[in-house]
Amino acid sequence: MLAGLNTGRRAVKVVYYYQHIDNNNMIDILGRMTKISIVTGATRNLGFSLAQGLARRLDEDDVVYLTGRDSGRVARSVRLLSGHRANVRGEVLDVSDREAVERFAGAIADRHGGVDIVFSNHYARVQPGENPAEVIDGYVAANNLGTTHILRNFAPLIRDNGRLLVVASRAGSLRALAPALHGRFENLQTLDDVDRAVCAWRDIVRQGLAAGQAWPEWINIPSKIGQVAAVRVLAQQRRAEDLRRGILIAAISPGLIDTGASRQWLDMTGAPPPDEVAIPLLDLALEAACDAAFYGGLINLGRGEPGRFRTLVPWI
Ligand SMILES: NC(=O)c1ccc[n+]([C@@H]2O[C@H](COP(=O)([O-])OP(=O)(O)OC[C@H]3O[C@@H](n4cnc5c(N)ncnc54)[C@H](OP(=O)(O)O)[C@@H]3O)[C@@H](O)[C@H]2O)c1
Known about the structure:
Layout: E1 18-20, E2 26-28, E3 36-39, H1 45-57, E4 63-68, H2 71-80, E5 87-92, H3 98-112, E6 115-120, H4 132-154, E7 158-167, H5 191-206, H6 220-245, E8 248-253, H7 274-286, E9 298-300
The structure holds NADP nicotinamide-adenine-dinucleotide phosphate.
């Protein structure tokens, strides 16, 4: 199928040829200017708002992958989208499954040759009544190892001027951790080092020894620090070349969002809904040029949060 040539603003991106491989897979041969976006954990709340916002703000030729771990919820979320212009494709992706992430990255490379925007947004919840020792394995598998799977597999696919953004939180700063523990997340050189540091903490939690070593009770805090540490390590490896190519890799603190992930932990008075929280994240992902000062950092995009909007949350 050869789409027609348009005129005007979209002229550079409309020669778009699909070769059908099977019902689901298509190779985008000439559509290199088409923007390709991926959102993980997009079956509710912030992830859904990010996928919907991208699909509304991008063009008809662009493709947004709305991904999630459950096929029924992915299909339902695609049906629930409204007002979108871009082509939305639902895709099942459990980020804790390393091979599934590798396969999906391979499929994206085959279909499109690369990706322009990735929001690593997924979050496996923990609630106050749950025993950390019992839930920590699944929690870390999705929130931390899942994030490093995404970073490892999608960073090499990011195109010039692309964005690889990890939705973390204000908790992803060493300031939220006892000073005696800072060394666990410092001087890490590789994503494997980050995984080892996070898994060492996971094992302490599993053994019920975390409180005795001054780890916080809310496992969200070290987990978010692990996510930000992963972004910092990857950025350290890629900085010069990414800045030359206009690529931004960063973590994001979106501020409080009124969702079931945090409602039982925090005072949600005045917390905005996901659609509102998504706006500055979408602005950052879609703006033509990015501020090099943000590269590799944790960017405060939460209105009403401590610290100035669109400044870096200090690491230490
Ligand atoms: N809520 C807040 O106040 C707040 C504050 C700061 C930062 N954040 C961050 O913002 C992000 C979104 O938060 P939220 O409140 O929207 O979370 P949420 O409502 O719990 O949604 C999380 C999404 O991640 C998906 N998910 C869970 N495990 C997964 C896996 N293994 N693979 C793929 N997807 C998976 C969930 O899918 P299912 O539907 O299948 O469960 C859901 O779609 C998270 O990174 C969170 O830490 C939130």
